[in-house]
């Protein structure tokens, strides 16, 4: 009766419990490696940098890491509770 919708729980999880910081670290490491692989010649000066690809290459690992963390936390919420994750 007092159940919170899963999307509200997911939004709360996405901005709490260290999820943004952890996702940022993953995005910086994975995004940098992928950018060096995909656009290494551009960074070395022999080609042009595609800035949209640079941004997307950092955004995708951030989104995937956040999605994984939120999915794990939402999966721990018991049905019929107020949305607090169980330890």
Note down, in words, how this protein is organized:
With 87 residues, this protein is mainly α. The chain has one domain. The protein has three helices and no strands. Helix 2 runs antiparallel to helix 3. The longest helix has 25 residues, at 19-43. It is elongated. The mean pLDDT is 85.
Choose one word for the global shape. elongated
Write down the oligomeric state. Answer: single chain
**What is the domain tally?**
1
Helical segment count:
3
- CA-atom Rg in angstroms: 18 Å
Q: What share of the residues does DSSP label as strand, in percent?
A: under 5%
Keywords:
87 residues; mainly alpha
Any chance you could write out the topology, listing elements then pairs?
Layout: H1 6-14, H2 19-43, H3 51-75
Helix pairs in contact: 1-3, 2-3
Please outline what is shown here.
The chain has one domain.
